[in-house]
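Why run this: before we spend reagent on co-expression, it is cheaper to look at a predicted model of the complex and decide which construct boundaries make sense. The entries below are exactly what would go into the expression plan.
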Amino acid sequence: MTLHSFYIFDRHCRCVYSREYTQGSDGGSTNRSNESDTAKLMFGMLYSLKNIASKLGDKEARNNLKSLSTGKFRLHLFETATGLRFVIVSDPAIDNLQSVLWELYSNYYVRNVAQNALSPVDFACDELLANPKFVSETDRFLSSLPVFR
Amino acid sequence: MSSYYFVIIGTRDNPIYELEFSSFRSGVSGIQVPGKSQFSPSVKEILPFISHSALDIIEDAQWSTNSFNLGKIDSFYGLMINAFISQGNIKYVLCYDANGSGTNGSSSPSLNKNDENSIKQFFTEANELYVKCLLNPFYSVNNAITSPDFDHRMKLLARKYL
Amino acid sequence: MSKTTRYSGDEMWKNNVEKIQNSELFTLTYGSVVSQLCRDFNNNYQEVNQQLDRMGYNIGMRLIEEFLAKTGAQRCQTFKETAEMISKVGFKIFLNIQPTVTNWTQDGKTFSLVLNENPLADFVELPMGPDNRICRDLWYSQVLCGVLRGALQMVQLDVDVWFVKDVLRGDDQTELRLRLNKFLKDEVPAGED
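The model came back. Tokens follow.
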């Protein structure tokens, strides 16, 4: 049971926050792979899959994509009404992280980014979410979860 | 039937609001416009000077009491002068002819304890009105008060207490 | 509007909202902003309106996230639903008022919000100048227009918002109008169609 990484994509489809967790003592990396092919491909895939999902039922049904799994990983997706996408990559054994993603958005993102008047909310094309408090608080929150390690 | 001259004076000894009126309390004889002051023209002219000369007395009197109402502080040829000072150093001065001189022979209620009290009430509520006026973002301290609403409310106060 | 009844603005106002202890502080702060803008722009009230609108827009962009986080609301399906949501939930949880939604146009794209009370304008009296220009030109609560425009744009609704009446100017009520220009499309990642 492990969480590998955590990404936030903004409504312009850019990765504004990427956080890799490693099991060693170095604490992983922050905002290293925002422009990486992995992030872009992952977003493209989630985007297409989400479109397919929404076309399966009628519009009212809100057939939202929540997660998808491969042999070794599971991707968890949560999209806000404002078009922010929160993504966590985990071990395939972890079934559902919707409440965790909701908490990351409704509590940590809203408090540290949206309500922080000095932090951008609609990120310009060279801006990243690098608010240290957001990073440390979400790290603490995620690592406190039983599924983290 | 007494006539009154009421003035609010700002922190730089500048008048910011004036009102002249007569008592609404006693019976109004036919020829008078209710509420219209009955000061003689010569008295009318010097009212601003009388109230301004009272400022020096207010300066002294404010240290001799704990209350904001300074009571009757001066008189000038039959004109009484009452004053009230606020926390923000805004002075309220009321000049009035207690014996009803200059009126057309109507009854002249003499000044008694009750009047002192109603003047105090009048000052207190006038101060409240001023504070409300101060909350308006377009008003700043020592500006002349031009609001018609304030004027209207002041007149209602005058009618209620004096 | 069965959907919107799920989100009870009343309940949320009671339990879920951090209230400022003294709302006068809020009202006076907004008041000083407006009067300072009037001084800064030399009583060019059109410019002041624009500035307030812009400030509101920036607030709206942030406020919508808080709104969604508090309510857990999904995107509305119709503009009518949006109108109810704005009045019954949005205004309720942020300002504790509930404007009336009214005056719909035939095409259902424009409606009015009538504010029975306006917490921004407590104590305010527009100064009577000789020309009374301030009463003609200044929309004192213009910031609300900006907030609505910013917040709705973040959920892909392109709207125009403007005041048509304000009791501060001597009108019988305070009324703002919202017009839906179009539903915006979600952005598509580079390389997708």
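The mean pLDDT of chain C is 89. The beta strands of chain C are 100-102, 110-115, 157-165, 174-183. Bring this page to Monday's planning discussion.
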